[in-house]
Structures are given as C-alpha cells and as structure tokens.
Amino acid sequence: MADAVNLRQPAAGRRVLLVSTGGTITMTAAASGGIAPTLTGEDLVRAVPELAGAATVDVHSYSTKPGASLTLEDLVRIAELIDLRLADGYAGAVVVQGTDTIEETAFVLDMLVASERPVVVTGAMRGAAAPGADGPANLLAAATVAASPLAGGLGTVVVLNDEVHAARHVQKSHTSAPSAFASPGSGPVGHVIEGRLHLYARLPRLAALPRPAIGAIEGAPVALIRVALGDDGRLLGALPGLGYRGAVIEGMGAGHLPAGLAELLGTLAGAMPVVLATRVAAGPVFQGTYGFPGSEMDLIARGAIPGGYYAGGKACLLLRLLLAAGLVGEPLKAAYIARCNGMLFDAG
Ligand code: ASP
C-alpha cells in the first residue's frame, strides 16, 4: 500500500539520467510528409523548464529512431549504459522512446538492469508540435518517479498519463489515446499526483539476467506466431526449417490450438524450445484444466513451456535473452518458468 509517510520527501535536486532514443515524443513535421523523430534529449529537456523542480537531469541522446526500429541489441547497450551511469550517484534513469514498443523495451530493461535504482520508460502519443502534446507532462512525471526515494527497488516502470505501470504487466492498449497504456488484470502500481509519486504496490524484483554479448543475440532468433481460427498449421510446420532457435506460439484462450496443430507443435518442441503464450490480454496460460487435443495440458505434455502471464512479444524477448545466455533444454525451461513466477502466483 502507499507509503504515506514518504510522500513528502523532496525529490528536487536529485540527479536523473535521461536516455533519449526517439519516438513520437521527439517527432516534428518531416519534409517527406507526416512526422518523424528529430528532437534530441537536450531539445526535450529544454522544452520542459518545470523539470528543474523535479530533478537535475543529465541527458544522453542515444538515437532518434521510431520505437519499431529499436532492437534487442540497442536495449542491451542501453541497459549497460544505465547500470554504468546509475552507479555514479543518480537517483534513477528515464528512457524516452516510441510508445509502439514500450511494453517490450521496459520488460527487457527490467530483466537486464542490475541497479536497484528505478528505470522509468516514457514517450508520448501525440507529436511534439501537436495541440495537447502529452510529451512534456509525461517527461515531467517520469522524471518525478525516477527522482523519488520511493521508487528505489521498483525495477523498470512505464509512466504515461500520470500512471505508473510495472514493466512486466504493461501493454499498449490503444493506437491513439493518451491513456493508451494499461496493465490488464492488475492495474497501475501507482500515480503521479500533485508532482509526487503515489505507490500502491511493488512487484518483487527478479535478479538481473546476464547481459548477453551482441553476437549472442544475433545467434538466438525466436519466431512469434499468433494462431487464428481455421489456422491450417503451415507456418508452424515450416518453422523447424527456418533457422530459428526458439518459438513462441500465441494460442487461443488459456493456451489452446486447433487439434490439427497439436502434433506439429510437438514436433517443433522436439527441435527447439517452444513457449505457449496466449493472445488474450489478461490472465495466464493454464497448466492443468483442459484435456482435449490441442489443449494446454496436451501441448505442455508435448513439450511446450507454459508461458505464464507474458504476452507474445515479452515471451519472445525473454526466450531470446535466455538462449543468448547459453541456456538450453531443462535449465532454459526452468529459467523461463522461474521468471513467470516473478508475477507472483502460487507455483504449487
Ligand atoms: N506511435 C509511436 C509513438 O508513440 C511511434 C513510435 O513508436 O515511435 O512513439
């Protein structure tokens, strides 16, 4: 519950590192039409003088990319930068980026950053020059959280629309609304109100994964397949020949496939680790309820790893990180499942 006694601790004067990577928050009119990333981290900070009341902000302009073009390699480099710089007396870090991939980037930073200081990922749904641009308010709220003494040990969170979401829960749930970010099934862990962090809950911290070498990431491609009604399994059947090291299958409901795909999944699971995720926004993949062909019990018996609460994108990135760390077979399966239990359910 909210640590009411701490709500009045002053945050101004604390140092925050801002890493800017691009996204709509940095976008202005492009000569070719539409908007495109142009502004640097320094530009963003200059546009929000109120930041001075929340924290002393030092800027690292990493890139000007849209969120869709960020890579796992970028995130490994950013995690390394954050761990190095946070050791130098910063209260926390803010990462500014495109909202299209925030749920994935925040998740990876939550897995890789070892520092106990908070990492706060933010962006904007409206371009920097749009009426009602939300970037300045989001940046101010993010810096407020990163500077807050309450945020120590929080891991990585996403702050937009004055809401604080845990990286492991958060999802982009709308293509245009400033309130696009949600944590389906659990809700936000806090809010920024009157310039202060109000915190309602803390997820347990997971030990940081080893930061993989860049080459090891390239060597660990993972496929993501979402299954729809009537899927005839030809993608699933083709996967073993495509050079992937692992696969995530987003099944229906609690982790189900059409019966005709069950054998294909079993063959795939014999060739590489296969995580069974769900295409449903909230709730975990089941492990022991349904027993029909193609059910979660059938697929797990055929070798699928039950994917817990993580949506396909997050599951994919976790599997890549575990493969890049050199894990295979049962230890990889155990490591994946242990990280799902970081969501706090009774593992039985
Ligand atoms: N719509 C995106 C954004 O909000 C574009 C991107 O991810 O770069 O930033």
Brief overview:
With 348 residues, the chain is α/β, with parallel strands linked by helices. The chain has helices at 41-46, 72-86, 102-112, 135-147, 214-218, 234-238, 262-271, 296-301, 312-324, 329-340, and strands spanning 15-22, 27-29, 35-37, 56-65, 92-96, 119-122, 156-160, 163-166, 171-172, 181-182, 190-193, 196-199, 222-226, 246-251, 274-278, 305-306. Strand 2 and strand 3 (35-37) form a beta hairpin.
Backbone shape: elongated
Low-confidence stretches: 1-9, 344-348
CATH architecture of the largest domain, by name, is 3-Layer(aba) Sandwich
Q: Major sheet: size, sense and barrel closure?
A: 8 strands, mixed
**Annotated CATH topology of the largest domain:** Rossmann fold
Radius of gyration: 21 Å
- Lateral strand order in the biggest sheet: 4-1-5-6-7-8-11-12
Task: List how many beta strands DSSP finds.
Answer: 16
Structural class computed from helices and strand pairing:
alpha/beta
Order of helices and strands: EEEHEHEHEHEEEEEEHEHEHEHEHH
Quick check: average pLDDT?
A: 93
CATH superfamily of the largest domain: L-asparaginase, N-terminal domain
Strand content: 15-25%
Count of individual helical segments: 10
